[in-house]
Amino acid sequence: MPNQTQVNSRLSKTPLSILDLAHLRQGGTVADAFNNMLDLARHAEQWGYKRFWLAERTLEALYPGRIDLGLGRAPGGDFAVTRALRRDLGTNGEDFPALLEELRGFLAPAKPTQAVRALPGAGTNIPIWLLGSSNFSAQLAAMLGLPFAFAGHFQPEGMIQALELYRRNFRPSEALERPYSMAGVPVLVAETDEQARYLATTPQQMFLNLIRGNPGPLVPPVDRIEWNALEQAAVRAKFRAAIFGSPDTVREGLEAFLEETQVDELMVVSNPFEHGDRLRSYELLAELAGTVKKPDEIAEAVNF
User: Span 4-71+127-300: which CATH code?
Assistant: First the structure.
């Protein structure tokens, strides 16, 4: 039974989901990263998380009916990644609406006159989300009547404005009758505020290394990050929406975040160095929200 705090909270009424990019750890292997991802997915089922998003678009063939497709204008990497994908480096994404419409056509039932067919994608009608960190995707999602997810886990600037724009301009569609929004947010829950702040130096160092042009695997937490004032300000801007702390601190922070953003769902990102700390963070968060499943519910769930 939920306690009185959970009954009266927005957090207990808001679906929680997980974004896992299978980050490599310093001293670890790709196999380790994927094994940890699978382990987290199994635990997420037990803890009552609604979605488990990955940077992958071909899983529907393996898990029919369990896959959403999130699309954004960015290629998902830096300039080198963009160049490797052979994208037009001069474009600013203005062709994204046309490309989206083309993709939706490929995922719809194939027509007899259709020259190019997507296999195994045709006819799957995978639910599509628009992802973004600006007003562009918010406006497009509203116009097409699609769910919208704001990437607050790495670009919180402009989040409130984009979400309000989406809700204000939403047009009902066959996919969605009313607006449905999600926000990505970095969350790290530990036994104490001090422990959470310490563990959070790992994702902070990850962004610091990106800023310095030296991307790499997750590194162990440190007592003190060596950075200059500009670097510190840049990293803190990236984590403006982040909520790190003890269960009480995180509960208070998430309640305020939900009240401010009015989102329908939270997509949580938690990247401490040790896999055990990551599992514990998601477990504590699920306990805060009251979503942990009972043993009989777990037995009925479909395992990954």
Answer: 3.20.20.30
